[in-house]
C-alpha cells in the first residue's frame, strides 16, 4: 500500500495534494528533459531574431521550446569545455562529441557549406548565478571559433558575456564576446559542480534528439 497521504483542500474536495514530495521536486521533474539548458546569443541570423519573436543581440536561456530573455549582458562562471558537432538539417538533431568519430568528421566537413545547418566547435559549461542554474554555451560558428579562445582563458573565473560588433567590407553583424566580471556573485556548490562537470565531460559519442519546430541556427560568417 502506498504511503502517500492525500489531503483534500477545504475549498475544493477534488484538489488533492500529494504530501510525499515537495513543490521543488515537482518543478525539477516536470521541467527535466534530460538535456541541460543552453544559453544562446540571439542575432538577426537566428530564427527567433528573423521572426521578431526575441530581442536582437540578447542572450536567452533555452529549455526545450522556452526562451527566457537574459538581456544583452550576463554574468557567468565558466567551468569547463568540450568539443561538439551538431547537425540540425533533418527531422532529428544529431549531436556528436568525439572528434575522431566519423559522424563528427562528417558534420565538421558539411559545416563549410553555406546554410548546411551543421556546426562544430567548443561548448562551455557555465553557471548562471542570478538564475542558480548550470547551462551550456556553444561556440559553433566561424566567428565564434575566433572568439572561443577568450572564453577558454576565463575558465574558473567570473565572466561577463556581451555583444561585440563585427564589420567587414560588405557586412556588419554581432557575436557574443566575453570580458572579466567585476561584480561579486555566489558560486555553485562545489560537489554539485563537480558532478555536473563530470557528466558534461563524459558524454556519449553521439546523442540524437527530435528536432523542434524551429531549431535556432547561426549563419556562418
Structure report:
The protein is an alpha+beta fold and 221 residues long. The chain has a domain at 18-82 and 123-202. It is built from five helices and twelve strands. It has helices spanning 23-31, 47-51, 102-110, 142-152, 190-201; strands spanning 6-9, 12-18, 38-42, 58-63, 66-71, 74-87, 92-96, 118-128, 133-138, 158-167, 172-180, 206-210. Strands 3, 4, 5, 6, 7, 8, 9, 10, 11 and 12 form a ten-stranded mixed sheet that branches. Strands 1-2 form a two-stranded antiparallel ribbon. β10 and β11 form a beta hairpin. Residues 1-9 and 213-221 have low confidence and may be disordered.
How is this fold's topology laid out?
Elements: E1 6-9, E2 12-18, H1 23-31, E3 38-42, H2 47-51, E4 58-63, E5 66-71, E6 74-87, E7 92-96, H3 102-110, E8 118-128, E9 133-138, H4 142-152, E10 158-167, E11 172-180, H5 190-201, E12 206-210
Parallel strand pairs: 3-9
Antiparallel strand pairs: 1-2, 3-4, 4-5, 6-7, 6-8, 6-10, 7-12, 8-9, 10-11
Give a quick set of tags describing it.
221 residues, two-stranded antiparallel ribbon, disordered C terminus, globular, 10-stranded mixed sheet, alpha+beta, 21% helix, 40% strand
Q: What's the shape?
A: globular
Radius of gyration from CA coordinates:
20 Å
Low-confidence stretches: 1-9, 213-221
As a percent range, the share of strand residues is 35-45%
**Which structural class is indicated by helix and strand composition?**
alpha+beta
Largest sheet: 10 strands, mixed
Helix content: 10-25%
Global mean pLDDT = 84
Give the end-to-end Cα distance, rounded to a whole number of Å.
62 Å
Number of strands: 12
Helices and strands, in order, run as EEHEHEEEEHEEHEEHE
